[in-house]
From TrEMBL:
Domain of life, per lineage: Bacteria
Pfam families given in the database record: HTH_26
Domain HTH cro/C1-type residue range list: 11-64
Name of the protein in question: Helix-turn-helix transcriptional regulator
Upper taxonomic lineage: Bacteria, Pseudomonadati, Pseudomonadota, Gammaproteobacteria, Lysobacterales
InterPro entries for the chain: Cro/C1-type_HTH, Lambda_DNA-bd_dom_sf
Amino acid sequence: MALSLELVDALKRFLRAQDLTYRDLAGRLKLSEAAVKRMFSRRAMSLARLEEICDVLDIGLAELSAEAGRGRAPMATLSEAQEQALVDEPALLLALFLTLNRWKQADVQAHFNFDNARWTGLLVRLDRLGIIELMPGNRGRPLTARNFRWRADGPMERYFRLKLLQDYFADPFDGEQDVLLLLSGSLSPAGIRQLKQRLGEVAREFDALLARDAALTAQERVGVSLVLAQKPWLLQLFQPYRRSQG
């Protein structure tokens, strides 16, 4: 199987930490040095071989995986170009949403009109954009943080404001799982800061719930979107009644 760059780099760091060379590793695995070098350069090794290397290094697969995760920090935001690519192709944005939420290919094809070629093509695009890493079996490993955020006034935020916001609020919020609170009032600057902090806490709780429920099947989960916002604002219909300042 082909290993991710992060796993290979983590193996190399463990080798260096234990002052082991490829020649040393080859001797313990009863392989030639050239075979070991080729295995690392091509990132091609079976699970059994990977476990043998971990035994030589006296580490477990969980420890190796944790080290691999530390070796490359997940992206907290996407680049302008990455966001624009998602905006330009809604199917690509959907593929990212499904990948982030750990949908399996069988579930995707049971719910969406993607044949094997189309779904694979979308995952390849996301891989080439550097947003996911395409794994064996058409599994996508996100390279973003679980709670990554869209860029402020970036392509996705602008797209949401111009195209999606009206759609989001078009239907009534009268379902069992729906909530719409329209709140307004006057607060002190300290009160506004406190409320902003609470909104951040709600966002973090949402992220934690996503992580908790990620292992459930697609049939056991419901897609949910939250819009959390606050700003000093007066309805445009009130503007004619405002006294001009100055």
